[in-house]
Design a protein that fits this description.
9-stranded mixed sheet; 19 strands; binds adenosine-5'-diphosphate; binds magnesium ion
């Protein structure tokens, strides 16, 4: 007897959105289902390496796509790990991953924008409901005796019952609606698969179009891993396919970094810097598509933590090495010295590519920085080892430019420093507009001393901890003791004289302001404004203070 169940509420919401989506590129549903099949095959292959009693002939692993035009049906089958009853309920009836939840939270309610989000990032299994009136999943988990059928018409419920399936694995049966019935055409399937799934690591089989081989299946994708090829032999379009079909990327990558190392370490890597990240990838620490680790062409782990630093979490791709045993335990990967060494090499490569981009392609770099700069700056706080490299690539707004588009590096700032200037000056605040009009800048403008204008929330945490950069101390222009060094010797004297002259007056002001300030001083810092608030020595800058207050401190 089939048992009827309700989707979890988020799943309902997502389904609803998918079905009513205006998204035009419906064909990506096939890419999502094939990529799930490929994941299931990867999981099985990995299990056979680590689990005794599970043996698999790697040659037999494959994905089959069959179509039945008459019945408007497409079936995607794999002989992968399969699902039991609980898996079906958990993985398909619920949206378990925090990624999809974050995705839902991002939704604006504006159908046009929201459907665009789906189009960009795909929503996995559920995308089948863009073209289907009903989807069935028949699956048998490896090592189990019973198979189950899950089915749903994309309304609020799904059903589960026992089913017949001899081998372990999964069939996804997509019952197309009349409108999308032509997806069951062989030529159409062929073109979609070549376009979106060409570099899936397992054979994707489709019925031959040859009259004489009617009914026979033939492989239509290329399974030689792209990363093993010589980069000179790879077309740009192939990289793009791989980026979206195997790495969960969208559109074209911003940068493709294909390297091969031999000698002390031997590995091949194919890394991508995307144009942008989906909103959930941006915030979600447990992302799926980071750098995947392969050992001798066999997939080992999706997202090896710390293989590259957390602040490069936007990087996607693959690294494949011959220097590890196939049965390397997943738990130990992170500590493995070979993995660490490779990770270090990849990290250095990323730094050098980013530096090269900054130098040779400033416009591209500017886009890159807009997208990922905030994330990278986290490294200044967390990664002491790569501090110097990070300091070379970070960028900030500054008074040397005349708009928020202008950004400077530390190097450029230091080059422009005035003779006698000892420090690197900065001012933190919420936005460029208000910062560039701050009274704190008056003296600096007058003396033509450059000030970095820091608008990212992270800057306020990172800067005070940076200490000296290029042997120059970092100083907030809101600090009480400004110390412009030789730049304002005269000013110092003038201040002292005025302090004496106005002693009585200052005392009165202090009395009136009473507890609200700790001191009142004469200053030559201001040219247009009569007075301003500054932070005392050893106290927090005003933004920091505001932030702490907001946190209830
Ligand atoms: P994702 O692939 O990002 O996890 P999906 O919505 O595409 O999200 O799939 C949801 C889950 O359903 C998968 O994580 C997996 O556990 C399970 N699943 C889907 N298709 C298959 C399949 N062919 N074989 C085994 N498990 C599958
Ligand atoms: Mg998926």
């Amino acid at each position: 007897m089939a048992e009827k169940m309700e989707f979890k509420s988020e799943a309902k919401q997502l389904l609803n959105l998918v079905i009513h989506s205006l998204y035009s590129n419906k064909e990506i549903f096939l890419r999502e289902l094939i990529s799930n099949a490929s994941d299931a095959l990867d999981k099985l292959r990995f299990l056979s390496l680590t689990e005794e009693g599970v043996s698999v002939d790697p040659e037999s692993l494959r994905i089959e796509v069959r179509s039945d035009k008459e019945n408007k049906r497409i079936t995607i089958s794999d002989n992968g790990i399969g699902m039991d009853r609980d898996d079906l309920i958990q993985n398909i009836g619920t949206i378990a991953s925090s990624g999809s939840k974050a995705f839902l939270e991002k939704l604006s309610g504006d159908q046009k924008n929201d459907s665009n989000l789906i189009g960009q990032f795909g929503v996995g299994f559920y995308s089948a409901f863009m073209v289907a009136g009903k989807v069935e999943v028949v699956s048998k988990k490896v090592g189990n005796d019973t198979a189950y059928r899950w089915s749903s018409e994309g309304d609020t419920t799904f059903e589960i019952e026992e089913a017949g399936r001899l081998e372990s694995g999964t069939d996804i049966i997509v019952h197309l609606t009349d409108e999308y019935a032509d997806y069951a055409e062989n030529w159409k399937l062929r073109s979609i698969i070549s376009k979106h799934s060409n570099f899936v690591a397992f054979p994707v089989m489709l019925e031959s179009t040859d009259e004489e081989k009617k009914g026979e299946l033939e492989q239509i994708n290329e399974t030689k891993p792209l990363w093993l090829k010589d980069s000179k032999e790879v077309e740009e379009a192939d990289y793009e396919d791989f980026f979206s079909s195997a790495c969960g990327g969208f559109g074209k990558p911003m940068k493709t970094i294909h390297t091969s190392a031999e000698g002390v370490m031997s590995y091949k890597s194919l890394l991508f810097i995307p144009q942008s990240l989906s909103p959930f990838e941006m915030n979600n620490i447990e992302r799926k598509h980071g750098v995947k680790l392969y050992v001798k062409r066999v997939f080992i782990d999706d997202n090896v933590k710390d293989i590259i630093p957390e602040y490069f979490r936007f990087v996607k791709g693959v690294v494949d090495t011959d220097d590890l045993p196939l049965n390397v335990s997943r738990e130990m990967i992170q500590e493995n010295p070979v993995v660490r060494k490779i990770g270090k090499a990849l990290t250095n490569k990323l730094f050098s590519e980013i530096k090269k981009m900054a130098k040779k392609k400033p416009e591209e770099f500017s886009k890159f920085w807009n997208e990922f700069g905030q994330i990278i700056k986290e490294g200044l706080h967390t990664d002491y080892e790569n501090r110097e490299k990070l300091l070379e690539i970070v960028r900030f707004n500054s008074t040397a430019g005349d708009s928020a588009e202008y950004r400077t590096s530390f190097d450029e700032y230091v080059e422009r420093m005035k003779e006698g200037q000892k420090h690197i000056y900065y001012l933190c605040g919420e936005d460029y507009e208000s910062l560039s009009n701050s009274p704190h800048l008056e003296l600096f403008k007058q003396k033509e001393i450059e000030v970095m204008l820091l608008t990212d929330p992270i800057d306020q945490f990172v800067f005070p901890g940076l200490g000296t950069v290029k042997e120059k101390e970092l100083k907030s222009v809101t600090a009480g003791d400004l110390d412009l060094g030789d730049l304002d010797k005269d000013e110092k004297e003038k201040e002292e004289q005025e302090e004496k002259r106005l002693k009585k007056f200052l005392g009165r002001v202090k009395n009136i302001l009473d507890d609200s300030v700790s001191d009142v001083k004469v200053t030559t810092r201001l040219t247009d404004s009569p007075s301003c608030l500054v932070a005392g020595e050893g106290t927090m800058n005003p933004q920091m203070e505001q932030m702490m207050r907001a946190m209830g401190q």
